[in-house]
């Protein structure tokens, strides 16, 4: 009987072998190569890179394969590798106005300098099953399907000229070092930069639902999608010993500028305020959700009453990390014999005491009956 | 960082990078300097899920050296799957020597138990902590609980214990039973049963607590006062077991209840498997050989003392 807790070593080895077998599927089918995943499942790869906090499509593709398609497991793999890498410093801020957008849309203006560019989007597709080979034909010779080469100013900057938009950098902005919550202890309240980092690596589904909740009235911010753009941007690293910035390469990003109506208060005139989202790869849903939540979390800045979950920094940030969330939820699978034994003892004791009390009460009343007789 | 086609990424010895180890060691030093105080640290991911001992793993990775021998237990047992997995992890990434014997280990990583064998000077216990904040379920906000610790504002926890007494006639906390360390900080001894609380008081070993997900490290240095909360008329009472272990016969140890059939049959056996195995081995050795070997009988006496 005591063997119940024995044999852990062998059990683990067997479980790993079974897992590998389950992940292999039908052996008559070829194995999927990671290059295929990186090329053909790029949206999933982007999610793993974002929540894994590491821009490396090949490694993310490997993680997805090793995790048998479990996104959170893949994210955990990437994070557990990323965290062991030394940090050399910060890159220069990326210039998203200079990125030639592969896609760029604004919901606030019909016509914007540089024009609207639909790009690669699921937006107007009919969600009907179709032959993927058919979908790409008739496309290659279509000239307008190639990316726009002109620079396009950011829509939020256009409004800024009229002072209708809160400035991106307030008057007293002194460009502090961006914090890094993967290297420094988390302390609340956070700076906006730290919060944006936490949101960028936060769970897409969690942020989506929180963003949605603000649209339904739980911390409403009156948002408009000022601009969403997707494209490749150059990353430059300023090495102190060189004295100039060295280009490291190009990364694909999605940026969302949410514009939010604000009626003003005693200190601030009526103007539009901003929510911001920036993520790796094609990850529009995430960028939009992030910008909604970023704006609601700025409640204190605008003297707004904090009444909804999406406005509560500690609640949002502490629960947005899906690596932490899934780990702790799933840890309930681990044995808890010892604590359960302790609770078992307590429940038995409480029941025994209750029955003893009930018996005592019953005893008294029967004596009383006898006394009366 | 670049991963060319077909080349797999590699990891540092001991998994964590050296900067991280130094950061954790600094947090540990601060924790030892302020017994029971929760030191925030920039917790890293480790290659097992959050909530499965990632805090303990980081602490162990930061302190383990070439001379160390590691023991890992979960629920008191060396052979539970997660203990096996963590022990195998350190054997793989740090080339660590491992053991299941409490008396041979220099570092003992644990979840939910303190071994029955008395700890000695020079040994380090590393606890895996899920929720480091003893006030968390009374006050969910970290900003609030930090303030309460700073002001030594611990009224709330006494009210909770008082409410237990008013409702049940006694304190109804059986594990993660709160303690005051060195007369100052309220501390959660991690979800060890209250049975193990007295082992912390004036313990000759160093006790380190790592909460990975919650990003906190705290410590009880050797020979520190650790007092379980109670009232003059309702003092702290650890769990007691009336029956001995069905396998080795030990009394005064923590027992697991093992269901033996579907008709309510149960047996009780040591939760500490190393203690149980060594007691059984000592008893059978005693039976098999004449006790003319002084050395052996000394050893047996020693083991006997531990569980009597």
From TrEMBL, chain A:
Keywords: Lyase. It holds the Pfam family PhnI. GO terms for molecular function: lyase activity. InterPro entries: PhnI. This is Carbon-phosphorus lyase complex subunit PhnI. The lineage of its organism: Bacteria, Bacillati, Actinomycetota, Actinomycetes, Micrococcales.
